[in-house]
């Protein structure tokens, strides 16, 4: 064993012998390792490269010999046994952009919104663990995952990756996804820190928001997820926040993240988001994919800055120690990934479970669903439903089946076609809804039409006993939607088909909320989101009642864009690149359902909404006060079928101040007539407002109202309790 390895082992044994915690031991070990490094070795550890063939190479920046072609690579230090970092995009599965690793497939989870719609933290945990297990089996040790940005605008191209509009829901689901991933001895990130809530010209977009509003919304989601999930890396965003780039934002990174929250891990940049060497002073610990930035800021420029004292040597040491701590605490230092076989069939069932619980039954007039298997003629209408289910684009897109040729996306702007050439070819997962529906109705004549001819689709609809029509909205990183309508004339198609045949079910495969001008004439509507590796089977199971739908909306569905805080064209949408502009989040912390409640507006479908084939009743509400609210109530399946329910608890009054905030939820599986008592205690910050002056959280003494309901607008039982006045740390 090398002398340095012996020294490290002796330090660890000594610390454990004195009953030091594993976390303290990891920090002490990181410090010892860092002290043994040369300046050049320290610089190498804070420098990431993009190890793919299309990145130009120079003699001073050669292709790393041991790198896996993927999102990122950071060299190790062999003489000290410090491992390299092998990084992969992995929001919804291990990615393989442009098939850079020929034939390397992975299991795709449903979209983040679909997972959030399950209201089931265990499924988020299982999904994170599944992705991480595949990543380790492929040789990766860092997952670029864990997006918890709030979905403030339905047009945001990355909404589908995130966990919805509510800080508590997003924080909990994000935390469990991260915990699941890191249970597999891997480093997981949380991203994109912070207020990175739109994609339009994202490198030049300045998010303008007050400190209290930011703390009570976007930052609270991150704070909850970091406290509960303990991600070992934070990825900062592309955007500016209140005038400073997120990756060089002293307030966000030093004051909030590392100061107020005591964050121990390291901050990595998003790909191409570093603008200067002094970002190191402002809290950034590692430059990722340096080739995408204007300069290798954390290379020679940082070395010179340390040598001349403009960046203190202690700051570089802190940067390196944080990275080493993450390697040790995660387990990748002592348990490096080993390339092994992957049971894709088993992992696909993890994806399928999330898809089944994430599908939301939005409308079901006349009980048209579940479909009777005795229907004689069923018409399926939808682009590519004979091939698979739609997937979102960008860095989260997963290659699920290398044997299936990529399918083009008609109607994309030319800029998108050029910008995302490597992603556009792989937008469907090979899980055909048409095939799955035919398998569940073997006695029926199941017809198919791709929907590209309105007249032909209408003609066929008139001959069918019932129609199932798919509405598709493809969303992607770096590109926001111009509006809320389904593209390529699909709204007109759905309206014409439902007029021709009133027994029509609409299945939405979308990246978020869409307008539904045909909603009143359509008896049944299902939100399937992007449903992943076994989405076709999951959709069919819900349609035929083999799975009782239990998804609930993690985002409010507005009637139209006029109901949202930004009813006009998105800020920056018509501006050329490299022109900075402000996005003023004047709604502050009143995101989504809070905005609707504050303004007395009625959405198309509210946050938390989701129907079932059975019914659930709530009763026996008990509320206790003190330092926070403790709530218990009984949930009863009052219907005829077994099903899963997601009861939601909302704060409705805070010492005389009317408001609406989700403070808790659960997921229960109940047989007909079965009941169960739910008990939960609210995080006190959800009862508070943030005081910028002190600073910290402030809870006013008085009576606090609580309601339990099926959604943000369907509140069934109400109660209250008294809370004492108090202050909490930031």
UniProtKB/TrEMBL annotation:
Pfam families registered for this protein in UniProt: Fn3-like, Glyco_hydro_3, Glyco_hydro_3_C
Top-level taxon of the source organism: Bacteria
Signal peptide: 1-22
Keywords from the named record: Carbohydrate metabolism, Glycosidase, Hydrolase, Signal
Domain spans labelled Fibronectin type III-like: 645-712
Gene Ontology MF terms in the entry: hydrolase activity
InterPro entries: Cellulose_deg_GH3 (IPR050288), Fn3-like (IPR026891), GH (IPR017853), Glyco_hydro_3_AS (IPR019800), Glyco_hydro_3_C (IPR002772), Glyco_hydro_3_C_sf (IPR036881), Glyco_hydro_3_N (IPR001764), Glyco_hydro_3_N_sf (IPR036962)
Recorded family membership: Belongs to the glycosyl hydrolase 3 family.
Name the UniProt record assigns to this protein: Glycoside hydrolase family 3 C-terminal domain-containing protein
């Amino acid at each position: 064993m090398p002398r340095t390895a012996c020294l490290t082992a002796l330090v660890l044994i000594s610390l454990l012998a004195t009953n030091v915690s594993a976390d303290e031991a990891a920090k002490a070990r990181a410090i010892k390792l860092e002290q043994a490094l040369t300046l050049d070795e320290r610089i190498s550890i804070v420098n990431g490269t993009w190890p793919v063939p299309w990145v130009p190479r120079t003699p001073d920046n050669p292709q790393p010999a041991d790198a896996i072609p993927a999102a990122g690579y950071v060299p190790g230090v062999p003489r000290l046994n410090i491992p390299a970092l092998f990084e992969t995009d992995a929001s919804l599965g291990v990615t393989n952009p442009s098939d850079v690793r020929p034939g390397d497939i992975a299991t795709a989870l449903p979209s983040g919104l679909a997972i959030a719609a399950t209201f089931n933290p265990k499924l988020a945990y299982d999904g994170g663990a599944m992705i991480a297990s595949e990543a380790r089996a492929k040789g990766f040790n860092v997952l670029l995952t864990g997006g918890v940005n709030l979905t403030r605008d339905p047009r945001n191209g990355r909404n589908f990756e995130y966990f919805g509009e509510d800080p508590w829901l997003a924080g909990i689901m994000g935390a469990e996804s991260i915990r699941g991933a890191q249970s597999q001895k891997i480093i997981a990130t949380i991203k994109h820190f912070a207020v990175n809530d739109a994609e339009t010209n994202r490198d030049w977009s300045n998010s303008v928001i007050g400190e209290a509003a930011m703390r009570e919304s976007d930052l609270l989601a991150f704070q909850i997820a970091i406290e509960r999930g303990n991600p070992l890396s934070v990825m900062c965003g592309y955007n500016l926040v209140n005038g400073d780039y997120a990756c060089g934002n002293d307030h966000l990174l030093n004051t909030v993240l590392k100061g107020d929250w005591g964050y121990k891990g390291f901050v990595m940049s998003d790909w191409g988001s570093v603008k200067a060497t002094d970002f190191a002073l402002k809290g950034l610990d590692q430059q990722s994919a340096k080739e995408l930035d204007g300069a290798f800021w954390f290379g020679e420029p940082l070395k010179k800055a340390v040598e001349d004292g403009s960046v203190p040597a202690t700051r570089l040491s802190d940067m390196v120690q944080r990275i080493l701590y993450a390697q040790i605490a995660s387990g990748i230092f002592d348990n490096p990934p080993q390339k092994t076989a992957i049971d894709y069939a088993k992992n696909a069932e993890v994806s399928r479970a999330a898809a089944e619980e994430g599908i939301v039954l939005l409308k079901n007039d006349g009980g048209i669903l579940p479909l009777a298997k005795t229907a004689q003629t069923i018409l399926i209408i939808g682009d590519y439903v004979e091939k698979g289910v739609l997937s979102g684009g960008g860095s989260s897109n997963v290659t699920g089946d290398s044997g299936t040729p990529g399918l083009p996306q008609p109607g994309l702007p030319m800029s998108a076609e050029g910008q995302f050439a490597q992603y556009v070819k792989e937008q469907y997962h090979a899980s055909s809804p048409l095939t799955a529906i035919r398998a569940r109705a073997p006695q029926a004549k199941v017809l198919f039409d791709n929907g590209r001819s309105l007249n032909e689709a209408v003609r066929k609809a008139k001959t069918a006993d019932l129609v199932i029509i798919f509405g598709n909205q493809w969303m992607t990183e770096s590109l926001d939607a111009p509006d809320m309508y389904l593209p390529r004339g699909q709204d007109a198609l759905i309206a014409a088909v439902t007029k021709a045949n009133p027994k029509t079910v609409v299945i939405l495969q979308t990246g978020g909320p869409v307008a539904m001008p045909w909603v009143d004439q359509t008896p049944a509507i299902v939100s399937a989101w992007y449903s992943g590796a076994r989405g076709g089977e999951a959709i069919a199971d819900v349609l035929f009642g083999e799975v009782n739908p239990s998804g609930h909306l993690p985002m409010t569905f507005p009637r139209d864009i006029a109901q949202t805080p930004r009813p006009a064209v998105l800020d920056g949408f018509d501006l050329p690149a490299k022109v900075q502009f402000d996005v003023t989040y004047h709604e502050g912390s009143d995101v989504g359902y809070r905005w609707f409640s504050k303004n007395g507006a009625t959405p198309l479908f509210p946050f938390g909404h989701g129907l079932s084939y059975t019914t659930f009743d709530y009763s026996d509400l008990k509320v206790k006060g003190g330092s926070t609210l403790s709530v218990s109530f009984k949930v009863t399946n009052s219907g005829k079928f077994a099903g899963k329910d997601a009861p939601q608890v909302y704060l409705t009054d805070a010492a005389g101040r009317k408001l609406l905030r989700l403070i808790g939820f659960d997921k229960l599986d109940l047989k007909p007539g079965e009941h169960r008592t739910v008990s939960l205690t609210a995080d006190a910050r959800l009862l508070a407002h943030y005081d910028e002056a002190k600073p910290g959280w402030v809870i006013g003494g008085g009576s606090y109202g609580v309601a339990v309901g099926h959604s943000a607008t369907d509140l069934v039982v109400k109660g209250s309790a008294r809370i004492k006045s108090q202050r909490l740390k930031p």
